[in-house]
């Protein structure tokens, strides 16, 4: 699994360079909170448009092509970002970023699932997240100092990482074909793959509820990701400290994932219970963040940034057991697309709330949005599914 560890290392290195400072850079370029929120909405609208078609593209034309395309567009995005003090360039960067995110969304998980198998998938997802977090933490510590020295330097370095990553991926990524023991029609059209994937979600009630829960969780966690930097600045944190917040968040993520790996078999049996605990913690911490006290703000923000990285492997592991391999990338992309829809509304709704009522009120409302997720995660284990879903000539068996 070394190829996955190197892949995750490069992903973490790039993310740590830009995540702590990109919103701060937009603010320093003169964009107000509402405009930053709307730019985030442009990103999410573009991602929603690209998300499902890109997953179907990967299922039809190849996962490797989708992954390498994502890396190429990521390099373009961060090469453009130093020019985003002009609004038009900023919009273009948001669209190319959205396309790169959509192309890799689901493709990486499908690649790993084919290599590891269903039983080991969740464990390997958590291990790779740990590797990614180590490198994200390391580079995020440096990002604040790099930004203070030169505002565009972190973005130039990020673009360089993606260019190297793209060239490496061309030669070293090998994605296994669909398993021969699963029904598979290599001549399926783009439209057939898409419609059969959507039919599968609509006929599996557990899957549908998990996907819907992703919409509400996106409302909350996107709001935190969008506004934690300016919020911490308003309560007294410096730009250099923001990188340390990311580092502390990475440490929290690593510790939580290490604990989860030790109880991996329990998580496999009680995924919904684990997700209920995670979202309840998220709701409490988001409420505490609104208090505006520096120590509480630091701790709450760091753990909230960690929570999303911790919950994602649990959700993907649960869904991976229910998704057939030949439609897996499309189905993962549908899940991500619904989350993107939540992030779109987050940018509009919470952008207005932030401007009119302040960020403290914004976080209180965001915390309430996690309540439907908690209810759904409690309900899902008691639901019964039919034994199989018939999709025209292909029958997909239920994994119980």
Question: Could you walk me through the main structural features you see in this protein, from its secondary elements to its overall organization?
Answer:
A hairpin with a 2-residue loop joins strand 1 and strand 2. The protein has 400 residues and is mainly α. The protein is built from 17 helices and two strands. The protein has a two-stranded antiparallel ribbon. It starts with a helix and ends with a strand. Mean pLDDT is 84; it is low at 387-400. Helix 4 packs across helix 6 and helix 10 (205-234) runs parallel beside helix 15 (328-357). The chain has helices at 2-18, 22-28, 33-61, 63-80, 87-104, 107-116, 118-149, 153-172, 190-203, 205-234, 239-262, 264-269, 271-289, 294-320, 328-357, 359-368, 371-379, and strands at 388-391, 394-397. 80% of the residues lie in helices and 2% in strands. The longest helix is centred in the middle third of the chain and has 32 residues, at 118-149.
Helix content: over 70%
List SSEs in N-to-C order: HHHHHHHHHHHHHHHHHEE
Q: How many E-type strands? A: 2
Strand portion, in percent?
under 5%
Oligomerization state of this entry?
Answer: single chain
Relevant terms:
17 helices; 400 residues; disordered C terminus; two-stranded antiparallel ribbon; mainly alpha; single chain
Précis, in short:
The chain is mainly alpha-helical and 400 residues long. It has 17 helices and two strands.
């Amino acid at each position: 699994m070394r190829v996955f560890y190197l892949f995750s290392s490069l992903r973490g290195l790039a993310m740590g360079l830009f995540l702590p400072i990109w919103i701060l850079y937009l603010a320093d370029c003169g964009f107000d909170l509402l405009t930053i929120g709307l730019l985030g909405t442009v990103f999410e609208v573009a991602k929603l448009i690209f998300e499902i078609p890109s997953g179907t593209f990967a299922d039809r034309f190849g996962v490797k092509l989708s992954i390498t395309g994502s890396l190429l567009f990521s390099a373009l995005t961060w090469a453009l970002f130093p020019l985003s003090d002009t609004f038009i360039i900023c919009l273009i960067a948001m669209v190319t970023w959205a396309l790169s995110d959509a192309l890799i969304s689901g493709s990486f998980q499908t690649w790993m699932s084919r290599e590891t198998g269903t039983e080991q998938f969740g464990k390997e997802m958590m291990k790779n997240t740990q590797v990614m977090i180590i490198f994200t933490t390391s580079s995020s510590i440096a990002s604040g100092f790099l930004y203070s020295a030169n505002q565009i330097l972190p973005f130039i370095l990020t673009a360089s990482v993606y260019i190297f990553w793209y060239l490496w991926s061309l030669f070293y990524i090998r994605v296994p074909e669909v398993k021969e023991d699963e029904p598979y029609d290599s001549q399926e059209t783009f439209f057939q793959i898409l419609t059969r994937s959507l039919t599968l979600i609509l006929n599996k009630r557990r899957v549908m509820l998990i996907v819907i829960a992703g919409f509400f969780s996106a409302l909350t966690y996107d709001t935190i990701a969008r506004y934690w930097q300016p919020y911490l600045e308003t309560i007294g944190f410096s730009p250099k400290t923001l990188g340390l917040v990311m580092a502390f968040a990475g440490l929290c993520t690593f510790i939580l994932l290490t604990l989860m790996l030790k109880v991996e078999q329990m998580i496999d049996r009680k995924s919904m219970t684990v997700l209920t605990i995670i979202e309840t913690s998220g709701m409490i911490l988001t409420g505490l963040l609104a208090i505006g006290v520096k120590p509480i703000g630091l701790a709450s923000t760091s753990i909230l940034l960690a929570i999303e990285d911790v919950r994602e492997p649990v959700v993907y592991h649960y869904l991976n057991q229910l998704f057939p391999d030949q439609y897996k990338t499309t189905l993962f992309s549908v899940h991500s697309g619904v989350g993107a829809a939540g992030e779109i509304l987050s940018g509009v709704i919470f952008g207005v709330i932030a401007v009119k009522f302040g960020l403290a009120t914004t976080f209180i409302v965001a915390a309430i949005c996690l309540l439907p997720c908690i209810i759904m995660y409690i309900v899902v284990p008691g639901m019964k599914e039919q034994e199989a879903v018939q999709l025209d000539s292909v029958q997909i068996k239920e994994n119980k």
